[in-house]
Amino acid sequence: MLRAVDEADISSTSDDRVDPQAPNPFASSISRDALLAYTYHLYHSQNSQVPGMTPIPLNCTPPIIDNVEQVCKLQILPLLVILRSLHPQDTSILLLMACTYHALRDFDSSLTLSQEILRLEPNSAEAMCNIGTTMMSIGQHDQAYEWWWRALQVHPLYWDAVDHLLNFLFPLAQQTHNSQHSSTLYARALDVCSFVERKAVASNGRLLLPVPTHQLHRLQKVFFTCATIRMMTTDNISDALRDYFRALELVIYPPTPRSDGDAYTMRELILAIFVAGYLIQSTSDDPVPIEILEILGVPGGSAPIDAIAIAQSGFDVFRAVRASGDRLVTALLNITGNALPFLLLLPEHVARVPMVLFPGSMGVLPGICAQAPNSSHLQMPPDNVRNQANLMTSSVLLALAKRYQDLSSADVAIPGLTGTLNVNYSLSILFYYFALSLSPSPSTYNNMGIILSTMAYVSPHAIHRTKRREFSGPALAKVYYTAGLQMDPSHPHLLTNLGSLHKDEGNLEEAMKLYSKAIYLKPDFDIALVNMGNAVKDTGRSWDALEYYRRAVELNPDLPEAVCGLVNSMASVCDWRWRDSGLNEFSVDAERHALPPNLPNYSHRQGYVKKMIDICENQLQIAYSQNTHAISAAKTLDEWLESLQLVFGRPLRKQELDHWARLFGQFYGPMNRTERQINEGGFIIRFIDWIQPRLQRRWYLKVYGKVFSAHKDTRTDPQSYGNVFLRPALPRSMTPPTVPSVLPFHTFIHPLPARMIRLISHRHALRISFTALSQSWLPRHVYPPPGPAVNGVLNIGYVSNDVNDHPLSHLMQSVFGMHDRKRFKVYLYTTTTWDGTSYRPKISADVEVFVDASQWSTAAIVEHISQNKIHILINLGGYTKGARNDVFAARPCPIQMQLMGYAGTLGAGWCDYLVCDPVSCPQDMCATEVWRRRRSLGNGSISESGTFLDLDADFDPERQTDDFTLSVCTYSLRDAVQD
């Protein structure tokens, strides 16, 4: 019996039996010491020592083994020699022996053993892979690649072979300077991944080869790598997205065996996350749309919904989404118009998403679970398997989020959804939510905050059982930055971005603390240095800001904000070094020498100003690729024309109809917006700014007729015509307009062409309008116009942030008292606190109504202006620090103008007149005057202007011409004095 057991243990073949006459392999001292060392290791590692017992002789001094080579040579190899003598054909012993010789750099012995394995097992993928690794070690790179490739063909799910092949190809592709050779190497890497994909997964998503759940993340990584390679060329974008989607579909499929009905696709995943988000954020103030609840078969109505309770009750989101067909997609698109809606969730809401999506697996990705025997329940995977799958899935989601963020203005096709959709930021946010719910990390919180900080959309959320709060994009971004810092209080990017939000709120002290901490933690963080420079400059210390900008430029010479900040700060302290002009003007070199423009090689010399101009030009160009197709996605052509009919108060005449149909019709056909310099998002905002005062005029005529004065105050009930004079809404798919790093106020001191000057102001104006028009407090109708002047007295409102010891107060302190009280009633809104000087008491005494609005919200100021029936609202700030242009962008008055505070063009549709001096603001550089001249010459007809994006005399600031700088009507102070 003993003999039979020994033979069974050793081998079932007679060739592998040990000769009983052979010498004892354990007889040598080397063998003895190796076995004892291994036994001691097992004894101590299992904590099996018996108290009071001594396992090692006192006179025995074990050899000190302190490196891998000694362990391999004195312990591992002797044991393997013994095992091989007992089992000469056991390939597992030979594999480990080959690896040991490789570790000892005995490559010949390692290769000999691997070849011996292939003699015994010709399809041993492990031996092939080991030969490849050894070939690489001896410099035979091509042979190494061939052996790894042979191993992968034998075993397509051999992850070591995949890693070896890709780790060989990628560095070569990245290091070569030959683009064609690099493309070839990436193509070979793509072949590796595609081979694994074809062998492992069928076209319908079913696994062709059994993949253990603990290895599923490796197969995901293959799809992820394949997609990453495809993303390098624009021709393969759709294939890349397909690979990303397949990587996600692998883990949302329930474990086998499953029915085909459970093979969910990316379409169901996207829609299911939307549904989960709606259910989780449901409140009485912001309920889930009834249509969506009815389509899904979820009971609800206007009452808040307990999403977790619904999921635990057996409601399957994926099954409901699939059963809805296209009805759910149509309902979601109807919310915003051919674009997926925004979902703004708090971090604690995001954490609930997996539980709502996968209640059957307790929030665990179903693909890594196992079917319990004789049960419908799923077995949960170990924590390490779950973490690996979550991390890989999160990486795929983050890559998709970034990709769709780059496509935020484009119409793209999503597999499973008919046609194309404007993905805006909604899809990116959706992927960020899911990634964050699976694998929270500070960097994901940071990315989430960045994208939210650009959004003005507001969503109500419960912060307590009885309290609610409305969160705008920036406010919600602050929540995410704070959550990220709770995970990593030393994360420099989170600190910097949170500081920027505080700076935007005017809290410079807190912002500078956060910037300082970020710089302390990461001294080479260029963005933190720039932001710190901006904050220091805003405190009036331009000389101190210089050092931060200079350090940032040294670290990143192409960072726009760093270059622009450095140029402006150097100019403010009269440091003209490296100041060139970009035009035919004098320049200054590093030693402060003045250089004439016609020096030899002048065109090859570039200082900071020329670089700033180039950067600004590139930033201005970005707008032409943003918010494309927003007009056609938001409304039909007829719906846009209906808005115009309301402006005219009558049906459009044929010539007018042809003109406006041609203007808007451009956006419904193919058009190269970059080539034509068409800013589609900017045009939408300009149109809304243009239409608002005209709707206010129609409202006035409807209520009062052509009456200019009345003997008593007449008030208009906003609700009486509130459903008539509706303001066109911004498409929900629109993203915020980008702004250049050069601020409008800085254009005074730089040699810039007229078009760039007006575009810098115009782009900032568009951003201000976008923010104002996106606010939840803004009524759907335009603000009601003030009634006729009572006894001929007009209500004049001034808005200023400088009613203190400031140059504006020095110049204007007596002007307020000069108004003819028989013709004007003066209101003054100050938006900053009193500095204790005498200027404010003096000025406040000269106006009828002085309003300290320093602690008021924009909504409160706008409402006060509307309620007090201000006829003319005057902006004394413009593009100066602390100005409240957002008040004017809400258009509370039908006539709004700019005076004193800012000497240039605002480039804004919310400013109708600029009261100025004809020297600083030449009348012939005003768009209105150019329009008049062209009409007088017969070149400004309505048909001619339709070829551009002009709105009557409101020239499109994007026009490729330098023949006008001011985009508003000018009213000369000299003419006023003469009158």
From TrEMBL:
Cross-referenced InterPro entries: OGT/SEC/SPY_C, TPR-like_helical_dom_sf, TPR_rpt
According to its UniProt record, the EC number is 2.4.1.255
- The segments carrying the TPR repeats are 125-158, 492-525, 526-559
Region annotation (Disordered) ranges: 1-26
Q: In which pathway does it act?
A: Protein modification; protein glycosylation
Q: Which UniProt keywords apply?
A: Glycosyltransferase, Repeat, TPR repeat, Transferase
Instruction: Indicate the segments forming the O-GlcNAc transferase C-terminal domain, all copies.
Output: 739-925
GO molecular-function terms, A-Z? protein O-acetylglucosaminyltransferase activity
- Which GO BP terms, alphabetically? protein O-linked glycosylation
Alphabetized PROSITE patterns for the sequence: TPR, TPR_REGION
Protein family: Belongs to the glycosyltransferase 41 family. O-GlcNAc transferase subfamily.
Q: This chain belongs to which protein, by name?
A: protein O-GlcNAc transferase
The top of its lineage is: Eukaryota, Fungi, Dikarya, Basidiomycota, Agaricomycotina
